[in-house]
């Protein structure tokens, strides 16, 4: 594929996606590269709803094939929250630190089993010729009491990955990409690109 627009302003996501799609896509753009693109209002009830909406709007506005994702953290003891509100859990202008502090406050009284959680990713590919595909990924873990690790972004420092003694933020990028929810969805997208 010659060009692909990734519908995000998150530089952490772009870095992960470029690493995973290296050699398959000649040029990967993000919405910061196209400042006239309108901002999508993420008002869907599910990760898939939001991913498809972002991809459709960006494709229509840019005329390029678009990959968009909506992903977040679901915590069993919080009834699946923060869910689709993961990026703005502590408010619409919240940063990662504020979201992490709010999460720690909310899980403070939960048991270990109630702290079980998953990172979920729904990724949508939409092309100007009308193709629409969804790809899913999920990784299980547990929310810990103190942030650990300097890699990654978002809730990564609080997410102890099942089967590992490390948080998502302690894993090397290549290992994180191999096992992460976004990595799983991107692997499915890579397989799709190879067949398309």
Structure description:
With about 200 residues, the protein is α/β, with parallel strands linked by helices. The chain has a single domain, classed as Alpha-Beta Complex (Maf protein). Helix content is about 30%, strand content about 20%. It contains five helices and six strands; from the N terminus they run βαβαβαβββαα. The chain has helices at about 10-20, 45-60, 95-105, 175-180, 180-195; strands at about 5, 25-30, 65-75, 115-125, 130-145, 160. A six-stranded mixed β-sheet has the order 2-1-3-4-5-6. β4 (about 115-125) and β5 (about 130-145) form a beta hairpin. α1 (about 10-20) crosses α5 and α4 packs across α5. The radius of gyration is 16 Å and the shape is globular.
Count of helix runs: 5
| Basic shape | globular
- Per CATH, the architecture is Alpha-Beta Complex
CATH fold-level topology? Maf protein
Determine the mean pLDDT. 92
Counted up, domains total 1
Describe the largest sheet: 6 strands, mixed
Low-pLDDT stretches: none
Structural class: alpha/beta
Arrangement of strands in the largest sheet = 2-1-3-4-5-6
**How many whole angstroms does the radius of gyration measure?**
16 Å
End-to-end CA span: 10 Å
Total beta strand runs: 6
Taken in chain order, the helices and strands follow as EHEHEHEEEHH
Tell me the name of the CATH class. Answer: Alpha Beta
Give helix % range: 25-40%
Strand % is 15-25%
Topology record:
Elements: E1 3-6, H1 11-21, E2 27-30, H2 47-62, E3 66-75, H3 96-107, E4 116-126, E5 132-143, E6 159-161, H4 173-179, H5 181-195
Helix pairs in contact: 1-5, 4-5
């Amino acid at each position: 594929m010659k060009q692909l627009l990734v519908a995000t302003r998150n530089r952490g996501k772009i870095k992960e996606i470029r690493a995973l799609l290296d050699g398959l896509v000649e040029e990967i753009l993000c919405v910061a590269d196209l400042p006239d693109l309108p901002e999508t209002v993420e008002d869907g009830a599910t990760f898939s709803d939001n991913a498809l909406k972002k991809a459709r709007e960006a494709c229509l506005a840019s005329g390029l094939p678009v990959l968009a994702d909506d992903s977040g953290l679901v915590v069993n003891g919080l009834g699946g929250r923060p869910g689709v509100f993961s990026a703005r859990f502590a408010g619409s202008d919240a940063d990662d630190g504020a979201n992490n502090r709010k999460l720690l406050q909310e899980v403070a009284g939960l048991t270990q089993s109630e702290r079980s959680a998953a990172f979920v990713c729904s990724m949508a590919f939409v092309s100007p010729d009308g193709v629409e595909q969804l790809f899913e990924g999920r990784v299980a873990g547990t929310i810990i009491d103190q942030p650990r690790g300097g890699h990654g972004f978002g809730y990564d420092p609080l997410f102890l990955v099942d089967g590992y003694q490390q948080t998502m933020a302690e894993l090397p990028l290549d290992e994180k990409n191999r096992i992460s929810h976004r990595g799983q969805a991107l692997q499915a997208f890579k397989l799709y690109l190879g067949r398309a």
